[in-house]
Amino acid sequence: MDSVQKLYFDALVIGGGIAGLQAALDLADQDFKVAVVERDTSIGGKMIRLSKVFPTLDCSSCITTPKMAAAAHHDNITIFTYCKLNSLDRNGKDLTASVTQHPRYVDPDNCIGCRQCEYSCPIYVADEEEGGFSARKAIYIPFSNAIPQIASMDVENCILCGKCQKVCPTAAIDYFQKPEDFIISAKTAILATGFELTPLENKQQYGSGKIPNVITSLQAERLLAPHGPYNRVLRPSDGMEPDSIAYIQCAGSRDKSMGISYCSRVCCMYAIKQAMLLSGSLPLVDITIYYMDIRAFGKGYEQFYQNAKAMGIEFVKGKVAAIDEGENGSVALHYEDQYRGGVVTKNHDLVVLSLGMIPDWKPEGICPISAASDGFIQTVRPKIAPTRTDMKGVFVAGAAAGPKDIVDSIAEAGAAAMEAAKYLVEINRDRAA
Ligand SMILES: Cc1cc2nc3c(=O)[nH]c(=O)nc-3n(C[C@H](O)[C@H](O)[C@H](O)COP(=O)(O)OP(=O)(O)OC[C@H]3O[C@@H](n4cnc5c(N)ncnc54)[C@H](O)[C@@H]3O)c2cc1C
Ligand code: SF4
Ligand code: SF4
């Protein structure tokens, strides 16, 4: 343990999504030294994977990429990607995080991001970054604007053919790279570990993820993205352009059969956004949104909803009970029509499930912070200090504290950074006294 490297910072931010990056930038601009620890091979979180964002329909990567670059180039920010947080504890007045950086099997100091390795690799694997709709190689940079631009080898699929090593112009391939353990010591920390979607496998009535033309909302974001897997919207089973698309709301929120009773807050808005974008890409398509209630709570959101209705998107009030695979790749929805009454079956070419949000990370066994009954990080004084956790000097921001859209995640990140800065000023003053 003595040989483990120890690095000192004022603040530690865990998670490099939009909330973590905003919090890090706000602290770094006040001259605090900040470490950002990210689990993935690139920073950017979910937002860098979205197409356009409600309610403005701005290009998501056009907003996220400058923030990612600003954090990566900031003199006061050090970013550690592809890391596992083993523990976060209080050690006297400081916080101590034990971190393991996974091996990329590529020397980060030598890699110049030229992708020659990727082009020469003979192995194709389903690309999770593109919703599994296209392929990547066994050595790859996850997406074109990833930060850092460093390749990583997927050892599960690599066949050790040596082709990448032969073409790499900087001799960066290192088949013998080992995981690296280090300790980060900081005075304060911000948890910005975000969310993941409710697992589709848990919902047997919706096909448990086995019906090819029933996709998740994040897969739909990739179909709509300018550099998406097909460069146009096609249904996965046969590459047909869909004539009829359905959205199923609350597929994993407000649904006790999935153990989730809360509203995920963003699904109504992202479904409406995707429906509007689909109408633009496929002008003749029929789009139906099956909903229980439409929750358009934010500034300008109700108008956004009304605009979608004016564009001809159909809203059907009814909870979809079950989905079956129909003929020729179609998907049959069975639902109770709450206005007209009765159980109705309707076929669509493509179905998108508006899955809800669950916490991506839980503190259990890693740090002594409480999670609330919904599993998200507990905030102890929600009305007075909404970003404060029950661990002294540790704050929370973004979807780590509960389902949230981008506007609220950024606002909360600013609030967490202010709380952390105040805490830093106070303890620095106490130590100087
Ligand atoms: C389909 C879909 C469409 C959406 N569209 C919109 C939209 O149009 N407009 C809008 O306002 N909102 C939208 N949202 C919501 C938006 O994605 C979130 O508000 C936003 O991503 C929250 O940011 P975050 O940084 O809190 O979390 P995330 O984006 O989830 O980032 C969290 C980061 O933390 C990292 N992490 C997790 N655990 C650890 C760990 N243990 N150690 C280190 N790192 C860790 C993750 O890898 C990730 O990089 C959409 C959501 C979905 C699902
Ligand atoms: S590992 Fe080598 S070939 Fe691959 S991106 Fe880096 S420098 Fe280029
Ligand atoms: S050694 Fe592995 S990663 Fe490199 S080219 Fe061969 S299969 Fe691809």
Strand neighbour order, sheet with most strands: 6-3-2-14-25
Shape: globular
Bound molecules: flavin-adenine dinucleotide, iron/sulfur cluster
Kindly report the name of the CATH homologous superfamily of the largest domain: FAD/NAD(P)-binding domain
Beginning-to-end CA distance, first to last residue: 33 Å
Q: Helix/strand-derived class?
A: alpha/beta
Helix coverage percent: 10-25%
Domains counted in the coordinates: how many?
3
CATH classification class of the largest domain: Alpha Beta
List the helices and strands and how they pair.
Blueprint: E1 5-8, E2 11-14, H1 18-28, E3 34-37, E4 52-53, E5 58-59, H2 60-73, E6 77-80, E7 83-91, E8 94-101, H3 116-120, E9 124-126, E10 135-137, E11 139-140, E12 152-153, H4 163-167, E13 180-186, E14 188-191, E15 195-197, E16 214-216, H5 217-224, E17 244-248, H6 267-281, E18 286-291, H7 301-310, E19 314-317, E20 320-325, E21 331-336, E22 343-348, E23 350-353, E24 357-359, E25 394-396, H8 406-432
Parallel strand pairs: 1-13, 2-3, 2-14, 3-6, 14-25, 16-23, 17-18, 17-23, 18-19
Antiparallel strand pairs: 4-5, 7-8, 8-13, 9-10, 11-12, 15-24, 20-21, 21-22
Helix pairs in contact: 1-2, 1-8, 5-6, 6-7
Bound molecules: flavin-adenine dinucleotide and iron/sulfur cluster (SF4) (2 copies).
